[in-house]
Amino acid sequence: MKQRILIVGAGFGGMWSALSAARLLDLHGHTDTEVVVLAPQAELRIRPRFYEADVHKMSAPLGELFEAVGVRFVKGVAERIDVAGKKVEYRDEQGVAGELVYDRLVLASGSKVLRPSLAGVEHAFDVDQIEEAVRLEQHIKSLSQLPASSARNTVVVAGGGFTGIETATEMPARLRSALGADADIRVIVVDRGSEIGAALGDGPRPLIAEASAELGVEWRLNSMVASVDAGGVTLADGQRIEAKTVIWTVGVRASSLTEQVPAERDRFGRLHVDRNLQVLGHADVFATGDVAYAATDDEGNYALMTCQHAIALGRSAGNNVAASLLGVEPIPYSQPKYVTCLDLGGWGAVFTEGWDRQIKFVREAGKQLKTQINSIWIYPPAAKRAEALAAADPLIPVVA
């Protein structure tokens, strides 16, 4: 009977885990282990691009790719992990319950924006999942059908972190595309920080402020949204902002499936793993992508919940889970090179290197890099067996 590596999730971490596991099995000529991916859809959703327009196009099919490398795909939603029984219970698209037993499990179920218990938060949009991002896009396009008003022409972005900044700086162009080039639009970022772009550090911060000023993006600092309704937001200090569009970008948490693995988790719900991405205390369970709290180096840095880290984490997890069955040496996860590329809409982009975010490219030069990252580098390899397996080598550096 074949052994089974079961991977839960088909995001960046899950997809690359599957390819990397298949690669190592292939290198050893091992045919007695199958690699199975369980996910709601056989597609990679390009989540880092969900702040852009035309979001409905931002997914890549995985069916042919998985077939090319010999990975079996099961369409379904994981509901329960039974670590003791080494099985995962799921429900397929018809709602029928099923289960998959495993010899090794790779949890790669990702993360979601965590909406707070806030009055009216259901009126807010987000750019976290593709369905919500599409709903936002349809809403923006429909604004032109409403009577002209300040509220119609105003977008409030809750949160001034990476996603909030990229979303806010893209909004002026998206609003003018919907309402006309001469529309008197407003984009307001509500952020609890005391400085514009404080979360991005001293290097990028003045450039974020410069881009915001040039694009007309306003910041309400030292502020928090207290409530949301169909007509706008009320801030914690009682100030009212009329807006037909409110976008929530604050707070991300790992998939709740991590709570079904009896192990230590960090404040984001991520499972503590060793350098081989094995969940501490569980020889048969690995975690990767946004559900793994993993050290990137020996300097005290840990992987962030980004596709840049998920790609490398996935390659490492897939290799090491296969290595554990083959009885060969794993390749410890290591990702000492860290970059950021922050899209700032019509202003351009900022590309930095290092955890201290040293500025390397700005404006158009940065934008060209961001375009390459978003449209080429983070997409899956071609559905050709040799090329796809080669691309999954965990020793390939990731810059995205």
From TrEMBL:
Keywords: FAD, Flavoprotein, NAD, Oxidoreductase
Occurrences of domain FAD/NAD(P)-binding (ranges): 4-312
Any Pfam family hit: Pyr_redox_2
Gene3D superfamilies named in the record: 3.50.50.100
Similarity remark: Belongs to the NADH dehydrogenase family.
Protein name (database record): NAD(P)/FAD-dependent oxidoreductase
Naturally occurring in which organism (per UniProt): Metapseudomonas boanensis
